[in-house]
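Weekly modeling sync, notes
Attendees: S.R. (lead), two postdocs, one rotation student

Agenda item 3: backlog of single-chain predictions. S.R. asked that every request posted to the team notebook include the full sequence so nobody has to chase files. The rotation student volunteered to paste the first one in as an example of the format we agreed on. Action items at the bottom.

Example entry:
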Amino acid sequence: MSKKLIITIARQYGSGGREIGERIAQKLGIPIYDKLLITEAAAKGDLNEDVLKKADESAANSLLYTLAMGSNTLGATMHFGYKMPLNDKLFLLQSDVIREYAERGSGVFIGRCADYVLKDEDNILRLFIYGDLEHRKQRVAERHPELKPHRIIDEINKTDKRRSTYYNFYTGNKWGKYDSYDLAINSSTLGIEGTVDLICSFAEKMMK
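Predicted structure, as returned to the notebook:
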């Protein structure tokens, strides 16, 4: 792809959003950024990667602290020694890493409020991938055979709530609400490959 294209993917748990992102990146010949963002954030902030993984895509526990400091001062607190919640540090570090990769060229970014972080990019396609509950339960069961059937729905609800809280907390927008995205797609309708084809076709038309 000759022109720069940024694709961000927010996704319900079990919808296949990550796999869809991987296939889109492969089909368009562009990089994908997901777990690598944690590694880069850890290196950038000189923090323990394993500790950061536990805070990934989770809102800060100290809600009152963050509100009191104000989002505009979060960057400054990192440099003046304040005891900022680890979740806030990770969000800021990952946001910096996301912007740096976006400056280099095209890419697919999975989760982590990338649509919000990169909202000023010119050629950006913001996606929300969701799915029918039965299809999502089946995908989670295939990925995690150790989970008993009655635990699968709990895992889906817990993960979606965590992602929603994280996104709403750090962006001030509503996770999954249509006006935060360019396309919201039910991956159960066309399946993974059909959804990938649809998105790639949309992206190609958008770039013409």
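Discussion: group reviewed the output briefly. The chain has one domain: 6-207.
Action items: rotation student to repeat for the remaining queue; S.R. to check formatting next week.
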